[in-house]
Amino acid sequence: MDRSFAPFAYGFPVDHLVHALKYRGQLAVGRVLGGLLARGVRRLGLHLDVDCLVPVPLHPRRHTERGFNQAAEIARRAARELGCGFREGAILRTRDTRPQVGLRPDERRSNILGAFSAGPALRGRRVVVVDDVLTTGGTVGAVAAAVQAAGAVSVDVWCIARAAAPERFSGNVD
Asked: I want to staple 150 with a disulfide (CB 3.0 to 4.6 A). Which of 53, 59, 102, 118 is the partner?
């Protein structure tokens, strides 16, 4: 992974917005969060060297249960506002894993290891992986590894919030 960006700390009111989207299905909140992400990205010009945004995928079972993917809701709006491509489905979650909430950092990394694959549509592209919250970096790190293995030229990560503190740029998300 090349860079990570999260415009907000994961605390009030952002945590309430993420929960409203993720656990109460308030999809309009995803559009708001995507717009806020796009605003932060545009301010720093991070979108200028990007081909496409790809959301962290849910396992098909979880997607069916929830009815939507919160990362896709955020990424779709951000891509539209930034004029970037949006490629839902370019990354697959190939293994159903335990929820990451409540796991220690080492458990998060081992839980998610090998759970993703990316296809040839990302080869030669400058890709941004989008998720809702960056906690330890385990999930986005595993997704970024799959995207790199698929031949992407660069892989950045954008999340609406970071659990520890607001993060502008980082070469290492762990």
From this structure: 118
